[in-house]
Automatic annotation (TrEMBL):
Purpose: One of the proteins required for the normal export of preproteins out of the cell cytoplasm. It is a molecular chaperone that binds to a subset of precursor proteins, maintaining them in a translocation-competent state. It also specifically binds to its receptor SecA.
Organism name: Pseudoxanthomonas taiwanensis
Protein's name according to its UniProt entry: Protein-export protein SecB
Subcellular location: Cytoplasm
Gene Ontology CC terms, in alphabetical order: cytoplasm
Gene3D superfamilies named among the record's database cross-references: SecB-like (3.10.420.10)
PANTHER family, sorted: PROTEIN-EXPORT PROTEIN SECB (PTHR36918:SF1), PTHR36918
Gene, per the UniProt record: secB
Record family assignment: Belongs to the SecB family.
Biological classification of the source: Bacteria, Pseudomonadati, Pseudomonadota, Gammaproteobacteria, Lysobacterales
Source species, domain of life: Bacteria
């Protein structure tokens, strides 16, 4: 059906409502990348089961009032026996805009959705670097960032409770 008309003219458009909360990906980029294979080519003939150690870190930096940089750093070390086969370090980052959100909602997005968005990029880059280094393909398994965030919240609450107890146990200043 067409717009309603008043005296033959189109009705004025309703004033635009204030935009609601916004969460957007502004940019995704590689901040740092490194691949080392210190024992090549001898490591290719080593026998034994590879031992993989994964280290995952997240860093958040506020760039301005509504823009945050989230950096997901993945370090994967592969050893065969006592020798290092390779070390891959990928620092995948993104700039995320958040407007009109409560601080708690921002914290949740920074701790869950942002790393969830970055992880596939980091996983692909890690896999490509390992394969380019002459090693069999390796695909990082999915990571439950919601569970990691829940654990972070639990640790924050424990620290806050410990700080509150320490403050309550401290003698009052000026009392002798």
């Amino acid at each position: 059906m067409s717009d309603e008309t008043t005296n033959g003219a189109a009705a004025p458009a309703a004033p635009q409502e204030a935009a609601g909360p916004v969460f957007s990906v502004e940019k995704i980029y590689v901040k740092d990348v490194s691949f080392e294979s210190p024992n090549s080519p001898a490591i290719f003939s080593e026998g034994g089961q590879p031992d993989l150690q994964l280290n995952l870190n997240q860093r958040v930096q506020r760039l301005n009032e509504n823009l945050f940089e989230v950096s997901l750093r993945v370090t994967l070390t592969c050893k065969v026996g006592e020798k290092t086969a390779y070390v891959v370090e990928v620092d995948q980052a993104g700039a995320f805009a958040m407007v009109g959100l409560q601080p708690q909602a921002i914290d949740v997005l920074l701790g869950t959705q942002c790393p969830h968005i970055l992880f596939p990029y980091a996983r692909q880059l890690v896999s490509d670097l390992i394969q380019a280094g002459g090693f069999p393909p390796f695909l990082l398994q999915p990571i439950n960032f919601d569970a990691l965030y829940a654990e972070t919240l639990r640790q924050r609450q424990q620290q806050a409770a410990a700080s509150a107890e320490a403050g309550a146990d401290a003698p009052a200043a000026g009392n002798a």
